[in-house]
C-alpha cells in the first residue's frame, strides 16, 4: 500500500537544503507526485537520484504577482560571427542539414561574456545545440542561475516543480517508480506534444537551457523543430497571408490541468496576443510562432477558420521531419535552444520505471515582433 501523504514538500525542502539528514518517507504533493524515499535511497531496480538537490518541490503557499514588462537586451546582436570565443577549441558536428548541432570541448559555465554573446547567436542560427560533458548540473544551483541570467530575466514557471529555494529552475522529473507512461498509453497512441515554452507570456523565453540529471538508458529523447525553416517552406503567397495575423496564446488550460492533478498555480494564468510570424532580433530570420500546446485562436478569424489554419500550421511543423532533430541525452549534456524559432517535444517512450530528471533555466526575451513580408 502506498504510504500516506505526509509532510509533502517540506520534507524534500529540508533534505535538499541540508543535503543530508533526516527525512520521512513521503510523497511530494504536486502534479507529478513521487515517493521521496525511492528517490533518495533508490529501489531494488533503480539507484538513488544522482542530484537530490534538484528534486522537485511545489510550494502551495507561494504565489507570485503578474509578470511586469522588462527591457530585454539581446546579447546575440553583440556576437562576433566567427565564434572564436565560443568555438575555438570545440568540435562541432551538425545534427541534420536544417537544424541542430552537437558540440564537444566547450565548458559553458566558464564562458566569458563574449563567449556568451556568441552562444546566443550560435544557438539562434543552429536553433538547438547539444553541449556534451558540461558541469552545469554539478556547480551550485545559484551559479547555474547566475550563468543563465546573462541571457534574460529568469522565468518562474506558474505550475512546475522547482528545487527547494530556487523557483526559477523548472524541473522535469519522473521518479524511479513512475508509471505515467504505462497509464498514458492506455488512453493515447503517442506522446508527442510540440510546443515552444510558455508562449502565453508577453515576453516568452529566448535562449533556453535544459540539462540532464538522470535519464533512462534508452528513451526519453527530446525532439526539436526549426520554426524558421517551417516558415520558409511555405509559398510566398501563403507567407504573405500569414503576415499581419496575430494569435491568442493561453496559460489557462495548463493552470487548470495543474489544479485538477492536485498541483499548484503560483501565478494567475494569462493570455497574450502575438504575431503568427515573428522576426529574430539577432539573425533577422522570420519564423512561425504558433504551437499546438498554447496557441488557441487567430484574432479576427471565425472559430472554424482559425481552427483550420492553425491545424494546418501545427501539422506542418509536426510532420516536418526534414527540419527536425532528435537529441539523445547523455550524462553531462546541456541542450540550448532558441525558443523564439523552435518548437520541441519530450518523448514518453520508456515504461520500465527508470528515472528521468532534467532542469531548465528559462531566460525571457523580447515581446515577439514582426517585420514586413519581403
Ligand atoms: O522533457 C523534455 O525532454 C522536455 C520537456 C519540456 O518541454 C521542457 O522542459 O520545456
Ligand atoms: Fe517545453
Automatic annotation (TrEMBL):
- InterPro entries linked: AtsK-like, TauD-like_sf, TauD/TfdA-like
Q: Which UniProt keywords apply?
A: Dioxygenase, Iron, Metal-binding, Oxidoreductase
Ranges for domain TauD/TfdA-like: 93-362
User: Cofactors per UniProt?
Assistant: Fe(2+)
What family does this belong to? Belongs to the TfdA dioxygenase family.
- Species for this entry: Clohesyomyces aquaticus
- What name goes with this protein? TauD/TfdA-like domain-containing protein
Q: What are the GO cellular component annotations? A: cytoplasm
The record's Gene3D superfamilies line, in alphabetical order, gives: Clavaminate synthase-like
User: Which PANTHER family does the UniProt entry name for this protein?
Assistant: ALPHA-KETOGLUTARATE-DEPENDENT SULFONATE DIOXYGENASE (PTHR30468:SF1)
Tell me a Gene Ontology molecular-function term this record carries: 2-oxoglutarate-dependent dioxygenase activity
Amino acid at each position: 500500500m502506498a504510504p500516506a501523504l505526509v509532510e509533502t514538500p517540506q520534507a524534500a525542502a529540508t533534505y535538499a537544503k541540508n543535503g543530508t539528514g533526516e527525512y520521512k518517507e513521503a510523497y511530494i504533493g504536486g502534479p507529478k507526485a513521487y515517493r521521496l524515499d525511492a528517490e533518495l535511497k533508490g529501489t531494488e531496480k533503480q539507484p538513488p537520484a544522482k542530484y537530490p538537490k534538484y528534486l522537485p518541490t511545489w510550494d502551495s503557499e507561494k504565489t507570485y504577482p503578474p509578470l511586469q514588462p522588462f527591457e530585454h537586451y539581446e546579447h546575440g546582436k553583440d556576437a562576433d560571427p566567427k565564434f572564436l570565443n565560443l568555438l575555438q577549441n570545440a568540435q562541432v558536428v551538425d545534427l541534420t542539414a536544417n537544424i541542430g548541432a552537437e558540440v564537444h570541448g566547450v565548458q559553458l559555465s566558464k564562458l566569458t561574456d563574449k563567449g556568451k554573446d556568441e552562444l546566443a547567436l550560435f544557438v539562434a542560427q543552429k536553433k538547438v545545440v547539444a553541449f556534451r560533458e558540461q558541469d552545469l548540473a554539478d556547480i551550485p544551483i545559484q551559479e547555474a542561475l547566475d550563468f543563465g541570467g546573462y541571457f534574460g530575466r529568469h522565468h518562474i514557471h506558474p505550475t512546475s516543480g522547482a528545487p527547494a529555494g530556487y523557483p526559477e529552475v523548472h524541473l522535469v522529473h519522473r521518479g524511479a517508480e513512475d508509471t505515467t507512461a504505462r497509464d498514458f498509453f492506455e488512453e493515447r497512441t503517442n506522446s508527442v506534444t510540440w510546443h515552444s515554452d510558455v508562449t502565453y507570456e508577453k515576453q516568452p523565453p529566448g535562449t533556453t537551457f535544459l540539462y540532464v540529471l538522470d535519464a533512462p538508458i534508452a528513451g526519453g529523447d527530446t525532439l526539436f523543430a526549426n520554426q524558421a525553416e517551417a516558415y520558409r517552406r511555405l509559398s510566398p503567397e501563403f507567407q504573405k497571408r500569414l503576415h499581419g495575423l496575430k494569435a491568442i496564446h493561453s496559460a489557462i488550460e495548463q493552470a487548470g490541468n495543474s489544479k485538477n492533478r492536485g498541483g499548484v498555480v503560483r501565478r494567475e494564468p494569462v493570455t497574450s496576443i502575438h504575431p503568427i510570424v515573428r522576426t529574430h532580433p539577432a539573425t533577422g530570420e522570420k519564423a512561425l510562432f504558433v504551437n499546438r500546446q498554447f496557441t488557441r485562436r487567430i484574432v479576427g478569424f471565425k472559430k472554424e477558420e482559425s481552427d483550420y489554419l492553425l491545424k494546418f500550421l501545427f501539422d506542418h511543423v509536426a510532420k516536418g521531419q526534414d527540419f527536425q532533430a532528435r537529441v539523445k541525452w547523455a550524462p553531462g549534456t546541456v541542450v540550448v535552444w532558441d525558443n523564439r524559432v523552435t518548437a520541441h517535444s519530450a518523448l514518453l517512450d520508456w515504461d520500465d520505471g527508470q528515472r528521468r530528471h532534467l532542469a531548465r533555466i528559462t531566460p525571457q526575451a523580447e515581446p515577439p515582433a514582426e517585420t514586413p513580408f519581403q
